[in-house]
Amino acid sequence: MTEPLLSVDNLRTYFSTEEGIVRAVDGISFDLAPGERRGVVGESGSGKSVTAMSIMGLIEPPAGEIVTGEILFRGQNLLSLGEDEMQDIRGGQIAMIFQDPMTALNPVYTVGDQLVETIVLHQDVSKTEAREIAIQALDDVQIPNAKEKLFDYPHQFSGGMRQRVMIAMGLSCNPELLIADEPTTALDVTTQAQIMDLMLQLADDRGTAVLLITHDLGVVAGFCDTVQVMYAGGIVEAGTADDIFYNPQHPYTWGLLGSMARLDAVQQDRLHSIAGTPPSVIDLPPGCRFRPRCAFATDICGRILPQLREAGNEGQTVACHHADEMDLKTLAVDSSDRIVKQDEVVS
Hints:
Elements: E1 6-17, E2 20-32, E3 37-41, H1 48-56, E4 64-73, E5 76-77, H2 83-89, E6 94-97, H3 101-104, H4 111-122, H5 127-140, H6 146-149, H7 159-171, E7 177-181, H8 189-206, E8 209-213, H9 217-223, E9 226-231, E10 234-240, H10 241-246, H11 251-258, E11 309-310, E12 317-318, H12 342-345
Parallel strand pairs: 3-8, 3-9, 6-7, 7-8
Antiparallel strand pairs: 1-2, 1-4, 4-5, 9-10, 10-12, 11-12
Helix pairs in contact: 4-5, 5-7, 7-8
């Protein structure tokens, strides 16, 4: 088997606040193979972006701290590296596209200056050579008049064009891993499709692995090979995209899928919402963290936190006590206000 490009093991990232300790990421583990496209989905506050920031080494103590775990990239533990060593990897071997390009780009420098600085930092080239690479990078992301656009400032670009600049910057050094944190959040749907198609094509051409963080399951369905579903700082289900969309095992995953409009449906049913809100990661409930919102919870769910284990298809994992006991997909809640009695769904 191919060795993982990235291996995250028991990662816990906590933040200290006046209200208490925020367990933003609380014991997650996953592997990413070379060239793999993995989607990370879940509601806001589930720990998706903090996972990315932890991988990039952007958690700054004392406010934030990685308290346990390993992040292995090509077998090297990133958490053991100093800032100078991490700087060589960040932006070169691992690149990140942030969800708001206007705040990620420096408004007082031209786009060309910022691209050239990145290329010179991570490649053994002169500024003249870096400028040619930057022009080609802008041309690759389909920005017209790339040579002239080098002299423009970020505010002179539209939202979609700024995101293209971020993709160009991320891929200009041919990284092995690209982390995209909600790259299409602020864009209209047409531009979203263009950006995702462009990023997919460029990643495929370069053989780049992609970790895509998003709340848009439609984007995941068209882009990702594998998916991990996060909730309250943990992974509740993981598998191939087909596993997640056609054979989901966790009630939270079914809830997310039930809120999606299906274009292939013969008759559109009413969309459902998941009752309640995610718990505070300062004061997590005992047992299963999804239990207060789950119509299928039983006594054991309130006592023991379920761990990821194999269920469903081969290689698919789920953190649910009852995943093997019943076909919950046939017992989906008809509407957000319907109550399913536990003795109707648990034998």
